[in-house]
Amino acid sequence: xxxxxxxxxxxxxxxxxxxxxxxxxxxxxxxxxxxxxxxxxxxxxxxxxxxxxxxxxxxxxxxxxxxxxxxxxxxxxxxxxxxxxxxxxxxxxxxxxxxxxxxxxxxxxxxxxxxxxxxxxxxxxxxxxxxxxxxxxxxxxxxxxxxxxxxxxxxxxxxxxxxxxxxxxxxxxxxxxxxxxxxxxxxxxxxxxxxxxxxxxxxxxxxxxxxxxxxxxxxxxxxxxxxxxx
Length: 230
Hints:
Jelly Rolls; disordered C terminus
């Protein structure tokens, strides 16, 4: 007698069962169900209300796919079964965030137009990662706590806390940069770093307060104390 795996609903053939037809079951398990779980990409329409997807035993199901592209109206909730599984979610709906969750739980809200890596821990949907090394391209909204290593391209909105380290690569405009206790207290909302003539030019508004040459020679302007010590 067949049973089914807990999370993916893969059919487990009983000893001596399905003589002459077990190949069909095996092909479904390997060529359809496991392939969905590892590399499946499918779309799911979101109506703006509560939509539910499933992982049926021994048969194809939307929730078994690895990558879900959400389409349709947008907004509302997408309920998934309480089974441990990794999900890549792309909210490509017309508008609005979609909350992906297990029924009765909190889940995670995926903003419109964004892609997120989520995991079902068997109880609810949670963020699959909390640490990243490398380049971040796009908009970061919310609180960033800890160290960011790599290039940050785009807008940073929210609180940035942690140690002040070195800046490498292309430096663009940094807004809302306030650090009350760090040694590199800029205490300004209009601090910019620009490249000019082989130098990094540090400015407050239109006023140059310091410069750094490619050889690492740091030159402070006479009025730098008014803005903090870099």
